[in-house]
């Protein structure tokens, strides 16, 4: 993480658990479309800070780190959900185009 901003280690851990447990398919969709890994077979969130979200992505039998910047610097926790929803919608649209 480069710019933790308002996101403590505990908060990041909670968000990671939620994303990896409940939104694994969305993580993969985001990484395929926005993370430059169209051939990815799996993705798990590994971190976030005020400037972006980080994943470990399985692609070609190798795990790669992927960082995707947020549209703007986040300053509070509720913005994370909105930004991830935006990314997911953008990624789905890109993959269906």
From TrEMBL:
Q: Source organism's superkingdom?
A: Bacteria
Q: Tell me where the transmembrane regions lie.
A: none
Q: Which InterPro entries match?
A: DUF2470 (IPR019595), Haem_oxidase_HugZ-like_sf (IPR037119)
Which residues does the UniProt record annotate as the domain DUF2470? Answer: 14-87
| Pfam families named among the record's database cross-references | DUF2470 (PF10615)
Report what the protein is called: DUF2470 domain-containing protein
The scientific name of the source species is Actinomadura darangshiensis
């Amino acid at each position: 993480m480069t710019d933790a901003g308002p996101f403590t280690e505990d908060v990041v851990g909670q968000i990671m658990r939620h994303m990896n447990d409940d939104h694994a398919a969305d993580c993969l969709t985001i990484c395929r479309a926005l993370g430059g890994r169209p051939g990815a077979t799996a993705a798990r969130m590994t971190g976030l800070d005020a400037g972006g979200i980080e994943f470990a992505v399985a692609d070609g039998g190798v795990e790669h780190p992927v960082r995707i910047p947020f549209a703007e610097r986040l300053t509070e926790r509720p913005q994370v959900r909105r930004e991830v929803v935006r990314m997911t919608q953008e990624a789905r649209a890109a993959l269906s185009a």
